[in-house]
């Protein structure tokens, strides 16, 4: 497809993933407004080649060198003049190009941290799907946004919903980042609480005694959303909601007691903001990530996303319930990590990534995911992560300890 030359340049970090593909679907509807400058992925040369054929970006990057060599040969044979690059540094570089104004941060996990930070430091509009990057770095991330003049738009559906429910001046201050813990912007905006909704995933009603035997495919079969495997397992343990709780505190400068998790099995209300006058403002829609992606691309305007309009009559009832912390220990662990501060959220995230990977490759049971995280957290000493190098060191250390814990379980 062809893009207009004066269109906004975009880099997509993680273009072959679930969010990456949804982003390209939205962009394909707006060739006059946006131009794909760079696409990046880990190792899927086949899918990236298909995307290159359609979107003809200036650059395509694969993390894996062997896969990049195959992609380069395919691109050359097809006579396409996309430059194929390889490796982690090249992914960071295309996130910071002068010809790029917007960066979709949709790499999964801690692997997305440095590319996302490269885009932040280069002052881009950051469409943040990679919640792990913010969970790991918290105040460093928010300060880097403020220092560079970047613009932060949440793409995670709940945070995008919360953002949509904010007054415009509060929206503007949240996009500018910073750490305003002293002046409490959300209180000044008349906000009493943020109500973060979650479906409860595939095991909301499964007897707790059966959870030890569930398989990776069962855990990845989310009732409402189609997503990558890591976030699908996170949704099943509700660690996803735990990470989102931490994400909400940072994005909206909220104290942990100002964010409440609420189960809502239908995934129609994507989150809510409760104001001191008794008003509760909600954002609703079909569970399709193209809505928050289009909102982040268009903000403060609205652009078409391809998502069908919500049929409220067909939707029927909307239910809300309190989460069961016994069934979902990840929720309590996340709240504790946020309250503990320092390196606790880094350890939580790292141990979770290692444990989820072990579960997906059938080395540990489903219920052992949160046991591993709990063990690693209990044995941790907290440090103040006041630079990215310290964050990366704490992350690496926690990953190693999570692996040791998994080896002991076996
Ligand atoms: P996914 O697994 O479908 O895709 C991940 C992408 O990251 C792929 O393009 C992959 O090639 C790339 N990648 C993985 N490891 C990499 C590495 N080491 N170096 C470079 N690239 C690498 O994941 P997803 O479901 O699209 O999720 C992406 C992010 O968005 C996650 O942080 C997730 O929490 C967040 N998110 C996803 C959804 C959703 O609906 N899928 C919703 C909200 C937030
Ligand atoms: Mg979400």
Report on the structure:
Helices cover 46% and strands 14% of the residues. The radius of gyration is 21 Å and the shape is globular. The termini are far apart. Helix 5 (113-121) crosses helix 6. It has three domains: 8-154, NAD(P)-binding Rossmann-like Domain (Rossmann fold, 3-Layer(aba) Sandwich); 180-285 and 309-335, no CATH class; 341-410, Rna Polymerase Sigma Factor, Chain: A (Orthogonal Bundle). The longest helix has 22 residues, at 388-409. Helix 1 links the parallel strand 1 (8-13) and strand 2 (34-41). It is built from 19 helices and eleven strands. The strands form two sheets. Strands 4-3-2-1-5-6-7 form a seven-stranded parallel beta sheet, sandwiched between helices. A four-stranded mixed beta sheet has the order 9-8-10-11. The protein is of the alpha/beta class. Bound molecules: nicotinamide-adenine-dinucleotide and magnesium ion. Nicotinamide-adenine-dinucleotide binds next to helix 1, helix 6 and helix 12.
Q: Which architecture of the largest domain per CATH?
A: 3-Layer(aba) Sandwich
- Tell me the strand order in the biggest sheet: 4-3-2-1-5-6-7
Our Rg estimate from Cα atoms comes to 21 Å
Overall pLDDT confidence: 96
Q: What is the string of helix and strand elements? A: EHEHEHEHEHEHHEHHHEHHHEEEHHHHHH
Oligomeric state, counting identical vs distinct chains: single chain
How is the CATH topology of the largest domain named? Rossmann fold
Low-confidence stretches: none
Structural class: alpha/beta
Overall geometry: globular
Can you identify the CATH superfamily of the largest domain?
NAD(P)-binding Rossmann-like Domain
Task: Count the E strands.
Answer: 11
Which cofactor or ligand species appear?
nicotinamide-adenine-dinucleotide, magnesium ion
Helix content: 40-55%
């Amino acid at each position: 497809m062809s893009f207009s030359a004066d269109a906004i340049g975009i880099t997509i970090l993680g273009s072959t993933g679930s969010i990456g593909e949804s982003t390209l679907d939205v962009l394909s509807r707006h060739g006059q407004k946006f131009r794909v400058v760079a696409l990046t992925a880990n190792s899927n040369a086949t899918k990236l080649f298909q995307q290159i054929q359609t979107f003809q970006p200036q650059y395509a990057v694969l993390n894996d060198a062997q896969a990049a060599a195959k992609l380069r040969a395919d691109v050359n044979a097809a006579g396409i003049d996309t430059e194929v690059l390889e490796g982690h540094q090249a992914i960071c570089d295309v996130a910071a190009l002068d010809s790029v104004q917007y960066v979709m941060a949709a790499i999964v996990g801690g692997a997305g941290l440095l590319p996302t930070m490269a885009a932040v430091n280069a002052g881009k509009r950051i469409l943040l799907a990679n919640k792990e990057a913010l969970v790991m770095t918290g105040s460093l991330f928010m300060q880097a946004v403020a220092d560079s003049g970047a613009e932060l738009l949440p793409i995670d559906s709940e945070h995008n919903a919360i953002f949509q429910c904010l007054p415009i001046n509060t929206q503007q201050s949240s996009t500018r980042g910073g750490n305003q813990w002293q002046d409490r912007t959300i209180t000044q905006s008349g906000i009493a609480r943020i109500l973060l909704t979650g479906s409860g995933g595939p095991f909301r009603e499964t007897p707790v005694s059966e959870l030890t035997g569930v398989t990776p495919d069962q855990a990845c079969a989310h009732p409402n959303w189609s997503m990558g495997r890591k976030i699908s397992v996170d949704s099943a343990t509700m660690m996803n909601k735990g990470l989102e709780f931490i994400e909400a505190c940072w994005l909206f400068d909220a104290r942990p007691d100002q964010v409440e998790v609420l189960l809502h099995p239908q995934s129609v209300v994507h989150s809510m903001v409760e104001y001191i006058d008794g008003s509760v403002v909600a954002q609703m829609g079909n569970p399709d990530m193209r809505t928050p992606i289009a909102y982040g691309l268009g903000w403060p305007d609205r652009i078409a996303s391809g998502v069908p309009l919500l049929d409220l009559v067909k939707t029927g009832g909307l239910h809300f319930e309190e989460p069961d912390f016994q069934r979902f220990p990840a929720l309590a662990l996340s709240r504790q990590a946020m309250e503990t501060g320092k390196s606790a959220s880094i350890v939580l995230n790292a141990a979770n990534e290692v444990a989820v990977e072990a579960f997906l490759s059938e080395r540990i049971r489903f219920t052992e995911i949160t046991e591993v995280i709990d063990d690693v957290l209990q044995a941790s000493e907290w440090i103040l992560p006041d630079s990215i190098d310290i964050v990366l060191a704490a992350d690496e250390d926690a990953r190693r300890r999570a692996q040791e814990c998994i080896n002991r379980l076996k």
